[in-house]
Amino acid sequence: MAIPTVESTTSNLTANGIAASVSKTANTLLKELPIRNGTAKFMPDTITNGASKPISNGTPVTLPELDASLLTTTLTPNPRSVPAPGSPEEASQKVCTDHMIQARWTATSGWNAPSLQPYGPLSLMPTASVLHYATECFEGMKLYRGYDGKLRLFRPQLNCNRMLVSTNRIALPAFPPAELLKLIVKLCATDGPKWLPKDRPGSFLYIRPTMIASDSALGVQRPKEALLFVIMACFPPMDGSATPGGMKLLASRDDMIRAWPGGFGYAKVGANYGPSLVAQGEARAQGFDQILWLFGDHCSVTEAGASNFFVVWKTKEGKTQLVTAPLGERIILDGVTRRSVLELSRTRLEKRCGELAPIEVVERKFDMFEIEEAVREGRMIESFAAGTAFFIAPVGLINFRGKELKIPMSEGDAGAYTKVIKNWLKNIMWGKEQHEWGYVIEESE
């Protein structure tokens, strides 16, 4: 299989290693490999199956791919109780649904048949690769109970595609994203009707697909065994609407770096999150909700906590813009909510929408000094963070080098653009607007 030659901010060793991973671990090829720079998408809209074949003793060998049609099902004999809305159990983020998906992979036998089984502990050796070398990646999705009575996912193909990008970055096995989606759908159809009853429209479950290296060899090497699993958890609402005055962000200092060019900030791997928890804890101890992650001497704005970050401002020439950081340097995550905000804004807000003036949607590097200047000159209109967990969270204040920059919120609890974008997305997610982004789940009776 020929691997395209492309320019990359990643070293040739990393780029070649990712390409080799694609060709060796499964018969899967990204239409756009996650080693491209510039305007390339790191999370492709579609992924096609290739015909890569590992070589064993000079003879081509095709290992089994992940195949949802082979799923075995074992239902739990001990079903759990569903937490009441607003209860401590729901708020704990520890309560999962009755079942989970598991699938095992080895370098010698490929993917085993996946299983839907009772939720429960995993079995790992103390020497498992994931426990020592952070060979782990995951996705964050939600299952929604719509106001029309239907269960929906939101653009789940993008999450499955992005997970393949992440597995390739950290030497975990490849898989056909469409097969992962089928497994997620099966879990949703099995547990969704009970855990999101029709008398609770507007509720959701959090879905966590995860892959870990379960190889018990302690040496620093490419894992030869892996485990894919999918669980669903009860989560409280986390969209920032309960924060009076909007989210308060503490801009990171020079000694805090979340991601860097040529690293793995674009992949949803555990190593992106663990090191950020110390700074996050300090920010909360000082009364802030999240860290606003900056990069470099110019204090380039990247992400807010684990969410993408947006500002709406007027340029000095009087043009209204929606601005967010670009993907080119591979520092930030290609968020599903980020994509959706940009696409809706380009199709619905680049011309006048009701009382809202048209905006120009811009993906470019920008820094805290620009934000500081826009606030000082009265050009800042609003700001928000966007991600699966926190959804659309209005920002009301940013602390930068000891200065408190107050961000306007024209609608009281949010800015006008923030509010309309949030409502559009909610309508799609909960079935008030029939849209191609809403993936309806056929429920098990």
From TrEMBL:
Q: Pfam family of this protein, just one?
A: Aminotran_4
Query: Which cofactors does this gene product need?
Result: pyridoxal 5'-phosphate
- What keywords appear on the UniProt entry? Amino-acid biosynthesis, Aminotransferase, Branched-chain amino acid biosynthesis, Pyridoxal phosphate, Transferase
What's the protein name? Branched-chain-amino-acid aminotransferase
Which SUPFAM superfamilies does the record associate with it?
D-aminoacid aminotransferase-like PLP-dependent enzymes
Reaction(s) catalyzed by this protein? L-isoleucine + 2-oxoglutarate = (S)-3-methyl-2-oxopentanoate + L-glutamate; L-valine + 2-oxoglutarate = 3-methyl-2-oxobutanoate + L-glutamate; L-leucine + 2-oxoglutarate = 4-methyl-2-oxopentanoate + L-glutamate
Which Gene Ontology terms of cellular component type are present? mitochondrion
Domain of life, source organism = Eukaryota
Q: Which family does it belong to?
A: Belongs to the class-IV pyridoxal-phosphate-dependent aminotransferase family.
InterPro entries to which the protein is assigned, alphabetical:
Aminotrans_IV, Aminotrans_IV_CS, Aminotransferase-like, B_amino_transII, BCAT-like_C, BCAT-like_N, BCAT_family
User: Which is a GO BP term held by this UniProt record?
Assistant: L-valine biosynthetic process
**Its Gene Ontology molecular function terms?**
branched-chain-amino-acid transaminase activity
Residue(s) carrying N6-(pyridoxal phosphate)lysine: K268
**Its EC number(s):** 2.6.1.42
